[in-house]
Amino acid sequence: xxxxxxxxxxxxxxxxxxxxxxxxxxxxxxxxxxxxxxxxxxxxxxxxxxxxxxxxxxxxxxxxxxxxxxxxxxxxxxxxxxxxxxxxxxxxxxxxxxxxxxxxxxxxxxxxxxxxxxxxxxxxxxxxxxxxxxxxxxxxxxxxxxxxxxxxxxxxxxxxxxxxxxxxxxxxxxxxxxxxxxxxxxxxxxxx
Amino acid sequence: xxxxxxxxxxxxxxxxxxxxxxxxxxxxxxxxxxxxxxxxxxxxxxxxxxxxxxxxxxxxxxxxxxxxxxxxxxxxxxxxxxxxxxxxxxxxxxxxxxxxxxxxxxxxxxxxxxxxxxxxxxxxxxxxxxxxxxxxxxxxxxxxxxxxxxxxxxxxxxxxxxxxxxxxxxxxxxxxxxxxxxxxxxxxxxxx
DNA sequence: CAAATTTTGTACCTACAGGTAAAGAAAGAG
DNA sequence: CTCTTTCTTTACCTGTAGGTACAAAATTTG
Lengths: 192, 192
Hints:
Chain A is an all-alpha fold. The first copy, chain A, has nine helices and no strands. Chain A is elongated and about 60 Å long. At the A-B interface, helix 6, helix 7, helix 8 and helix 9 of A face helix 6, helix 7, helix 8 and helix 9 of B. The first copy, chain A, binds a DNA duplex through residues 1-6, 29-31, 39-43, 45-47, 50-51.
């Protein structure tokens, strides 16, 4: 009962995610959110409680969409090497595409709030772990099918792939050129 | 002539660097700076002009100390593999040491301001390029001396090393464990 | 020592961050 | 058709961000 909301909270969280993703947590103001969500400040605070609470919801949204999409991609069957290549190249195109060099929301959050906001840090840590796990599973598949050398430590390779992926997206934000990003992908696949 | 400063501006820039490094640009307030530098607000603005101008000076300081130190380390003569290992492991210890998981100031700045503050973005971009150049030179040395396989593209390997380094430091900020960081180093050296 | 120059401390300012309060509007319950 | 509940709007509030202004203090020059 009661008056129904005039906006869809799920849509609003998505828009808020875009703002936080582009500007970061500290640089995003209530006014920014009001402008981009197209709702009043009262509704904003009534629906989400605080800037920080909304921020956490956007991080969860990121995990459940972007981060999850990558993991699903990596979990696909079939030849592993082209799978890894297309996954990494997709991220390059995303970072260089029309949304424009906003990098990875989880990475941005790690460097802005890591160690200073426990909830956010923990969310990011788990996303990294999940991604690394997906890389590890892919590498092990490749090793079983003989695509990759079987003697390399899958854990170590997966950790390297996570680090390279994270590094790539930071470099993209710092105006790293497309060629440089592709070289990273080439080198990491050559390392298998 | 005129009254001499009661503080050493170079020391002050160093202290300001620590603050910005820990908290980021947006989250650092004039009050934070006044507290940590131990000077009045009047002196602060008289000496440095604005928060942003001071921030740029701290980034330059970072480039001329931390970033330059890594490049110098990598430029040393002698066996290359242990050199690379000790350089990367030094960063791990730095990130996990008593100063505590503040990551890399350049990386933090890239993700906070990349694409939104031209001067900072450009400074970071150049630091990344310099570091990559030092990696490349080291790899080429290793190839000449027969330490590394000579057929691999030194540019690509250097780009990968930069990305792995950057990724490592982000992961460190997100509470990544010591073992994970060491695995990354192992994997990247195995890739040579 | 007076004049000129620079630094320092204190006070002050405007705008906005991050919300809260209160009253009215829109739904369902009885 | 009133009562209750929830949402919306508008107004308001406190604290601080990011500086500026100005007088007093400390130095060099002549």
